[in-house]
Amino acid sequence: MSALPPHADPASLPYYDSERLSDETLAVLCDDLELGEADIAAALTLLAPELRFASPSALVDIGVNLTHESYARDIEGTLLRARVAGVSQQILTGTSLDGSREAQALAARYRGLSATAGVHPHDASQWNDGVERGIRELLTQPEVVAVGECGLDFNRNFSTPAEQARAFEAQLTLAAETGLPLFLHERDAGRQMLEMLKHWRDDISHAVVHCFTGERETLYGYLDLDLHIGLTGWLCDERRGEHLRSLCREIPLERLMLETDCPYLVPRNLPAKLKGRRHEPSLLVWIMAEVAALRGIDMEELAETTTATAQRFFRL
User: Is residue 30 part of a domain?
Assistant: First the structure.
């Protein structure tokens, strides 16, 4: 019987102590945030002490949904906790025209944030000439660093497969025209996704399969196309992510990036309960530690390598 894949060890992780952060440090971290002393104290103590991780090196969260309504009342506290934890840069995911506009506006307001612009396959039925013009305009904005979230999702088919393929084809065209990388979504559609990407591979620059959850054959199909792979807390879920724990070790380190996809996909093996079950960027440190344990490498090496990869990929 083979050994079970290892898990992150909470005792091996560094943590931040909110009471020991100097005024100078807080001043730098809060330089673009409108937080008073009471707000800062409340933000830094919101998470249980067991969840106040501090990365040994700066991290990039390549997939966050900070325009979600659950962050409306404490977006600045969320950003502060991420900065204290060492998550220095975040990519806000655009999933519709309106959502992409909101992501771009939020990225323009706070440092360390960038955005993508695109239409998720769930909303592919909404794709039309007006949406295309709006996305094309957003792709000219300095805060927007990728086309997407776009792709195929045959798990729920909120839009028909034909509608999804049409919207995806249009966004592949935008990526080819602009030279921007692609932020891809795929679920239960690996074969058709690979077929479409093979057709376009010589015309597009880079692409990352965000929140990869597929099987080995699909993974190697993406790797053969020189794509990057984004991993989330899905691999912390013993119910549905166990296969990812072995596949994680087969992804070339230079093709790997990390993400929370917050507020979704809370890691199920966190060392303490999370109030409200809302995921957030500061917890990317736990996902990093989990991946490092699975790969048998030092956390600092993983943090430095995945950050350098993300910065090159998104031209941060």
Answer: no
Task: Show pLDDT as tens, one digit a residue, over the chain (316 residues).
Answer: 345 567 888 888 999 988 889 989 999 999 999 999 999 999 999 999 999 999 999 999 999 999 999 999 999 999 999 999 999 999 999 999 999 999 999 999 999 999 999 999 999 999 999 999 999 999 999 999 999 999 999 999 999 999 999 999 999 999 999 999 999 999 999 999 999 999 999 999 999 999 999 999 999 999 999 999 999 999 998 888 899 998 999 999 999 999 999 999 999 999 999 988 899 999 999 999 999 999 999 999 999 999 999 999 999 9
CATH of the domain at 153: 3.20.20.140
- Alpha carbons 231 and 248: distance in angstroms, whole number: 8
Backbone CA torsion sign across 113, 114, 115, 116: negative
Q: Calculate ∠ Cα 77-55-61, nearest 5°.
A: 65
CA 71/CA 278 separation, integer angstroms = 9
Report if residue 5 sits inside a domain. no
Q: Which residue has the tokens 């909470």?
A: 10
- Is residue 139 in a domain? yes
Helix (H) or strand (E) holding 305: helix 299-314
In a domain, 274, yes or no: yes
- Do the beta carbons of residue 81 and residue 282 sit within 8 Å? yes
Which amino acid, 281?
A: P
**Tally of structural domains, the chain:** 1
Q: Which structural domain, as residue segments, surrounds residue 77?
A: 53-314
